Amino acid sequence: MKKRQVEDIRLTSSMTINQLIEQFDKAGGFTAKKIADGVDIIETMMKEEGCIRLLSFPACIISTGLRGVIVELLKRKLIDVIITTCGTLDHDLARIWKPYLHGSFHADDHVLHQKNLYRLGNIFIPTESYGSILEEKMQPVLKELYLEKKQWSTKDLVWAFGQRLEQEPQGKESITYWSWKQQIPMFIPGPTDGAFGSQLWLFYQNHRDFTIDVLQDEQALSDIMFDAQKTGAIVLGGGISKHHTIWWNQFKGGLDHAVYITTAVEYDGSLSGAQTREAISWGKINEQADHITLDGDATVLFPLMIASLFERLESE
Does pTM surpass 0.90? Predict the structure, then answer.
């Protein structure tokens, strides 16, 4: 193993984000070095010919401004497949029509409940910005879609909603819109676990032949995986979206590139806290893959890493 000397970070007023990340690599230092290594892995998967690039994330981050980073990745077609949760659609669609607000982790939740404010971490969501606006906007669309066909995959349902956002004033700020616009499949393996899913259930009460066929999604995912020469994944957080991403990759011999960003710990055996190295034992990440797990908040780390990536890609 070649030994490298630790170097001090030299900050300048004209330094770009990528220059700072490159200094992280030279400086060592715990998470800083991991950030630099993670950007290198993401850059490799972006440039590798024939590599299918997957992005998975939970819904909570879509209540924050990190949503805009994902939108930009989709605009640039740097992602080929999204796997996420039902709540992503909740927040992504709701924020088109109603505002979410800055809040506090330390707010009195009893008072918030009395004021009709939901708290998601330090984000406040007025009740009228969530369930009721989704019902108002979704039910007419579902009536249209029902006339088109009775059985939908989550991928096709997302695209159908995305297409209808083209004329919305804030529609182009939406992940759902750009998924449709760039024809990037978004899969929701747990489609009833959120307000979007509740609206599907509500519509089903009077339309019993309306169904969501998740096995259509599984077939589409299997086709992608079995045809892929190489695959790389950026996995934010954990849960069903993380597991579905790495689960399907075991059928092609495992991911060739993997970057996890998580705040969860591994000592309790949770999937969310499981490191990339654990996935190797399952064949979900290839033994020869380049991979890394970053411990930290994706709302901080991911924008830094993607800004660095953009600078690298734009400098070529």
Answer: yes
